[in-house]
Design a protein that fits this description.
Elements: H1 2-14, H2 20-38, H3 43-58, H4 63-84, H5 86-111, H6 120-133, H7 161-183, H8 188-208, H9 232-246, H10 252-279, H11 282-292, H12 294-299, H13 304-330, H14 340-353, H15 358-389, E1 392-393, E2 398-399, H16 413-427, H17 436-442
Antiparallel strand pairs: 1-2
Helix pairs in contact: 2-3, 2-4, 4-5, 4-10, 5-10, 5-13, 5-14, 5-15, 6-7, 6-8, 6-13, 7-13, 10-13, 11-13, 14-15
Length: about 475
């Protein structure tokens, strides 16, 4: 055990000195990229490739070098690997979607200290906004769901999608303010209960607003939802670059996956820039004061209600923007996409990554998505293949075909996430990447009293007479 600890200490020291982190990160990125490129169906190699993002972020390297590697990975390596295996595009797109949602919820929960259990409602607002105006639903208001006439026109052209990205942000922010006005009269557990109810109200409305006027098409959902058009010269140029690497031309679906991935990446960069600015401003300090002690913040002259409303609005805007993107990328939405468990999932990402930490919640979103889409699903598929193989488990001579489907890891997703959160609360309450402001508070030096008598020293006895 001692030798193992010594090895890790030596490795950590080596990774933080000289040019070693530059060489290690570059070599690791090249090797994992080649492994995924040569074996596109091996998901384990893709997991190793995702770890390279952590090395780029955490190892001590110059900002320009990190930025250059990040651009190469995001705009060159990921598209090539995504076209090689379209499932990888789906994983990274899901990470981007939930990272943006976690960043928005982190403003409310991590920065301001308000527990919101209905956050997915703002996600639904943006999704249904584009779903209604970007589909045929406006012409089906008085049609029974499932009986739409053929050749029904679309209300708006597909390229109106670009306009609805800011409109979805504004609409969700307005709904956030409208929710905050009556809700912010309560605190603590009562606030969590009210926001939970709001999230369920939005889902039930989406499920039942198919009569008397068919606004949402009820539980059947809205489809088809338009995607924006892609310029043919751009696709031809990308195909000309990808063909020597992939050996074929990318399909239209692969181009759309690439397109929505880039849009999600741009939105996340904008969200991060805005949040960093807010966190380092008077607004961020006011949010921190409200989180630590609301009464003390109000006594110091902070308008608590206004700053809480601003937190709700900014957090909701992040979710509304991603809702528009979700509707366009899926071309179908239904109320089941915005259940209570979605809100709990996003909250678990924030807690896992670190309350108030921007890189922490992104890491939390990546861990949860990869665990859900790759590890648990991959283990379930592996067990399913073993059942169909007709083999037996060694030693105990138990047939794989007799193994119950109830033991599939994918069915224990909530239990596994619950165990992870319990362990985090016990052993690492600050999250995987603690917020810098929180760490500064934890690392404050202890100020000793200069007049205190040091331990081990005895005061001299007063033997003399005055």
């Amino acid at each position: 055990m001692k030798k193992t600890l010594t090895f890790f200490h030596t490795f950590q020291t080596l990774m933080t000195t000289g040019k070693t982190p530059y060489i290690f990160t570059s070599v690791y990125l090249v090797l994992t990229t080649l492994l995924v490129y040569i074996f596109p169906q091996q998901q384990f190699f893709f997991l190793l490739f995702l770890v390279s993002a952590w090395f780029i972020y955490s190892l001590p390297m110059s900002r320009n070098f990190k930025l250059g590697l990040g651009i190469v990975v995001a705009l060159f390596i990921v598209p090539v690997l995504g076209v090689r295996n379209i499932f990888y595009f789906e994983v990274i797109f899901q990470i981007c979607i939930f990272a943006a949602l976690a960043l928005g919820l982190n403003i409310v929960v991590g920065f301001t200290g308000l527990l919101n259990l209905g956050y997915v409602a703002f996600y639904a607002v943006g999704a249904y906004l584009w779903a209604f105006f970007g589909s045929q639903q406006a012409y089906l208001l008085h049609v029974i769901p499932g009986t739409a006439p053929a050749n029904t026109p679309f209300l708006l052209p597909p390229d109106a999608f670009y306009l609805f990205i800011p409109l979805g942000m504004i609409a969700a922010a307005v709904v956030g303010v409208l929710l905050g006005l009556p809700v912010l009269r309560v605190r603590g557990d009562y606030l969590a209960i009210v926001t939970l109810g709001f999230g369920e109200v939005i889902r039930v409305l989406a499920n039942n607003l198919d009569k008397p006027v068919n606004l949402t098409n009820g539980p059947q959902g809205i489809t088809p939802i338009q995607r924006p058009t892609l310029p043919q010269p751009v696709m031809d140029g990308i195909n000309a670059m990808l063909y020597p690497l992939i050996g074929r031309y990318a399909t239209l679906d692969e181009f759309y996956n690439m397109f929505f991935y880039v849009i999600a990446l741009v939105i996340i960069i904008v969200i991060i820039a805005v949040i960093i600015r807010l966190d380092d401003s008077k607004i961020g300090r006011a949010w921190a004061a409200i989180r630590e002690d609301e009464l003390a913040a109000a006594a110091m002259g902070i308008n608590v209600v206004n700053y809480k409303l601003l937190a709700f609005a900014v957090g909701a805007a992040c979710a509304g923007t991603m809702g528009v993107l979700l509707a366009a990328s899926r071309t179908f939405i239904s109320p089941e996409s915005f259940s209570f468990m979605q809100s709990i999932g996003v909250l678990s990402m924030v807690i896992l990554g670190g309350l108030g930490s921007i890189p922490g919640v992104i890491l939390g979103a990546a861990v949860v998505v990869v665990l859900n889409l790759q590890i648990l699903q991959g283990l379930s598929l592996w067990l399913s293949s073993l059942r169909q193989s007709g083999g037996v488990i060694p030693v105990i001579n138990f047939a794989w075909s007799s193994l119950s489907n109830q033991l599939d890891p994918a069915q224990y997703q909530r239990m596994i996430f619950g165990l992870i959160l319990i362990l985090m609360m016990i052993y690492r309450q600050e999250g995987l990447i603690p917020a810098k402001r929180r760490m500064r508070g934890l690392e404050q030096p202890v100020i000793e009293d200069e007049n205190a008598t040091p331990q081990g020293d005895k005061p001299e006895a007063n033997h003399g007479a005055a």
